[in-house]
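Collaboration report, partner site 2.

Our partner group contributed sequences for two proteins of shared interest, and the home lab folded both. The records are reproduced in the order in which they were received, starting with the first partner submission.
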Amino acid sequence: MAENDGLRWLGELDQAEVEKEDFAAKGQGKYTVNGLNPHDDNWLEEASQKVHAAQGDDYVLLDRGLLTVNQLNWLLKEVYGELTYCDDNHQLMWYNRQYDDPNQMMGRRRPEQVGDNMDDVHPDVGNVRKYAKQVWYGLRAKADGRDEVWTPVSRGHGEPIMHYNRYKRIEDEAGNFRGIAEWVVDLKPLAEYYCRTNGLKMVPDEQAQRPDFVETPADVKRHQADIDATSHPSN
């Protein structure tokens, strides 16, 4: 999967180290809630009660803002695309539920999955779990200095791309790894809007490249940073 999805560098990681990723979440993250069964469908409610979580009209002081929990929920539901956060203990902690029906989502999530470990979230089918572990290890170790991974998702081998998954390393203020954020987005409407508002058209490329030969936005950004470091900042 790594080669077909434009992520050849993941296949070049130390696979023995990749396999050590604790997808069963037996470890301890900075904010792990202990003493609960992570497989419980009511884990979120039980964990919230145990830690006395803020809710409803309680105010939350953010980095640059003050919002209630209700306001945060409303805001995050309206973010373009689907967001998911998994903590540094390989647990699914949150997603912005935009639909009551999971089947309407590009990256399907169910309410009872919150609190599940990565083994539970990723089926042991084909190389799904192996690929997920590569992404986790690559971002946790910041392999080759990378802090994000882009994955095009298609209906099948050789089929048109449906949407893109972006996995981003999350760090605290000291640079410590605190988990992974996933952004799932259908870029086609944005591309079509861009073309219409600029008088452009999308046409087939007779020399279309395989996904693993196409630079991701992260690669383009890295290369530009290298150029700026040796010359001058780009405009």
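Second partner submission, folded after the first:
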Amino acid sequence: MDRPRPSAVERSLRSAAPHEIFDVLRSLIEDRHHAREVDLLLVDYAMTRLQPVGVLPHTRPPVPVHDSAPGRAFGAQEPHCVHDRSASTVTVHLPVSVRGDRLGVLSVTLPGEGGDEPAADVLEDLRECADALAHEVVVAERDTDLFLQARRAERLTLAAEMQWQLLPGRSCARPEYSLGAQLEPAYAIFGDSFDWSASADDLYVTVSNGMGEGIDAALLTNLAVNALRNARRAGLDLCDQAYLADQAVYGQHRGSQYLSTLLFRFHLPTGNVEIIDAGSPRVWRVRQGVVEPIELEAQMPLGMFEDTAYVPQHFRVEPGDRLLFISDGVYDALSPGGEKYSLRALAASINSTRLLPAPQVPRVMLQELLGHRGSGPAADDSLVMCLDWYGRTGRDRQSLP
């Protein structure tokens, strides 16, 4: 079978210099559809603002993710049209996403007489432009800082810079699952981190809570995450992944620093889950509307002792299940009056976000936590990860080799 050939848009973007790909796309859309304005807005690290891409400082003001037309397209992951009858235009806001990872919004203002929606073929072409741009932005970030700079509503600390560069993304999706995670304070995170990787039949997920602050915490987390990746990419099982990461951290710090970590392997065809709780963040499950913690046998954190042997536990996820992985920075958050964030408040937050898609849940839960903690400096960073499990259909199972 012949491979599908790249479209003219894809070819143009691939041949452009990394920092020029949006300029090239803007020119193409202006020529094809007589667009009056074309803007690219990328979501900031806190996922509260959509930041215009341009040469700093000559950019337009950001717009909020909440209560804005571009934010509506970003949240729903569907095009959203806004008519301006006085100007005889229609602005189409389109999500810019790659494999479930939400990057931002492409906004295109077109002539729109009489309030008509854009023709179906025009809308489809703009969708393809947004999808092509999303893939090229991810690739271009290896060679230009333009898009990374555009995402910053304020300056990152050096530790936060190291942590964000370590992450795989903030959301991803496949037919079997949808996954999203967020860290706060986004511009000054310490040692919390997450990672994931999927193959044909397995999804690996890790959630880590490193001790310490600033650069020390970031260096510790970088060592542990890369040790886990090294072991996973060598084809080792979950126990050996934990063992080798444990030895890497212990060998460097001799027990003076260590890392609490959850390690998961989800078997996509069956929903069987293998898990190692290395003194980790906690896990909650929402099943048929019931919110409950999953009790696990806590083992030693990575790097606390030499030659720790890890033993996996097992459970099963069912279609419709939601899992939430939550770090100590959430449970231990104090109000200005010194009151801890209660388990009751956490359960209420989990319940109130049950209708949101997984990529939106972590940000909303952390915003509710901020309402409890107040606007002062955080004593610890906080991590929330949400996984919605859909499972593999009977047809999918039959097609397995």
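Feedback sent to the partner group on the second submission included the following. Residues 397-401 have pLDDT under 50 and may be disordered. The first strand starts at residue 37 and ends at 43.
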